[in-house]
């Protein structure tokens, strides 16, 4: 196992072992978990990494069962250990598989159209946009694979797991919002878009996007989340989210 740290992530409410030098759980995971909405029976963390988001939600929702899908063997191993360390092993199943390969997912026992909620924090960059890290796990976490439209492929694969009437939530860069909405097509309705700004007078650096599968309700632009006051500290809402005391509704 790679060298690791053990961190209590207050905004997630779980203690996580994660690689010392690889991709680590951060604010994006905290915001995604905060935007999960009301409790559900079954959820999927699509591209789960070390398991922060999926484990946070099954800990928050005692009746929930989670499937955490992760392709990287080390990250999947960390997720299994984290589930056990947080007393969640019986309610969180970690599946090491290529999330974009429908046949491989089915072979691993993951059925389409079954989850009440699917959450995902996809890699933010396409191949060629940034210099790829020599660390394989970090590279997979930051850069999508090859293909004509890898972000659309990721979104469509994640949406395939949502049951009719179920919810989907993701966090990404705002400049990719057009591609994300195009990938939704008519699969998702009641789409809610929430920009996330570092300061009140700054452009958004993230966008949280969700919706309901099969709905025909119109889209909504939700109130923006501002992370920092002008003086530099968190805004009251952002601070409460990072302490695990508030959620995005």
* Helix proportion: 25-40%
C-alpha geometry: globular
Topology, number of strands: 11
User: Radius of gyration, Cα only, in angstroms?
Assistant: 17 Å
**Structural class by secondary-structure content:** alpha/beta
Low-confidence stretches: none
Q: What would the average pLDDT be, to the nearest integer?
A: 92
CATH topology: Rossmann fold
CATH classification, class level: Alpha Beta
Domain tally: 1
Q: Which architecture name does CATH use? A: 3-Layer(aba) Sandwich
CATH homologous superfamily (4th level) name: Vaccinia Virus protein VP39
Q: How many helices does DSSP assign?
A: 8
**Strand-residue proportion:** 25-35%
Task: Write down the secondary-structure element order.
Answer: EEHEHEHEHEHHEHEEEEH
Intertermini distance:
38 Å
User: What about the largest sheet?
Assistant: 9 strands, mixed
Concise description?
This protein has eight helices and eleven strands. The chain is α/β, with parallel strands linked by helices and 249 residues long.
Fill in the keyword field for this structure.
single chain, 249 residues, alpha/beta, two-stranded antiparallel ribbon, 8 helices
Q: What can you tell me about this protein's structure?
A:
The structure is a single chain. The chain is of the alpha/beta class and 249 residues long. It has a single domain (4-242), classed as Rossmann fold (3-Layer(aba) Sandwich). Helix content is 28%, strand content 27%. It has helices at residues 27-34, 52-60, 73-85, 102-107, 136-142, 150-160, 177-184, 236-242, and strands spanning 4-9, 14-19, 42-46, 65-70, 92-96, 115-120, 162-172, 188-197, 206-213, 220-221, 225-226. The strands form two sheets. Strands 3, 4, 5, 6, 7, 8, 9, 10 and 11 form a nine-stranded mixed sheet that branches. Strands 1-2 form a two-stranded antiparallel ribbon. The chain is globular, with a radius of gyration of 17 Å. The relative contact order is 0.14. The mean pLDDT is 92.
């Amino acid at each position: 196992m790679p060298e690791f740290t053990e961190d209590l992530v207050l905004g997630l409410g779980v203690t996580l072992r994660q690689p010392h030098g690889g991709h680590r759980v951060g604010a994006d995971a905290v915001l995604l978990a905060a935007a999960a909405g009301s409790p559900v029976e079954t959820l999927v963390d699509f591209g789960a990494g070390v398991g922060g988001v999926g484990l946070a939600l099954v800990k928050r929702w005692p009746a929930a069962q989670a499937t955490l899908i992760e392709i990287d063997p080390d990250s999947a191993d960390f997720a299994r250990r984290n589930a056990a360390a947080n007393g969640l092993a019986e309610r969180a199943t970690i599946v090491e598989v290529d999330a974009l390969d429908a046949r491989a997912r089915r072979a691993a026992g993951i059925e389409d159209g079954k989850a009440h909620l699917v959450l995902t924090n996809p890699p933010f960059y396409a191949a060629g946009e940034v210099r790829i890290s020599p660390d394989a796990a970090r590279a997979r976490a930051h850069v999508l694979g090859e293909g004509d439209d890898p972000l659309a492929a990721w979104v469509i694969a994640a949406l395939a797991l949502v049951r009719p009437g179920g919810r989907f939530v993701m966090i990404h860069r705002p400049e990719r919002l057009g591609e994300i909405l195009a990938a939704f097509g008519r699969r998702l309705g009641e789409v809610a878009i929430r920009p996330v700004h570092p300061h009140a007078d700054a452009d958004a650096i993230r966008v949280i996007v969700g919706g309901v599968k099969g709905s025909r309700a119109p889209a909504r632009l939700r109130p923006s989340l501002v992370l920092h006051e002008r003086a530099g500290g968190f805004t009251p809402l952002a601070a409460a989210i990072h302490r695990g005391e508030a959620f995005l509704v």
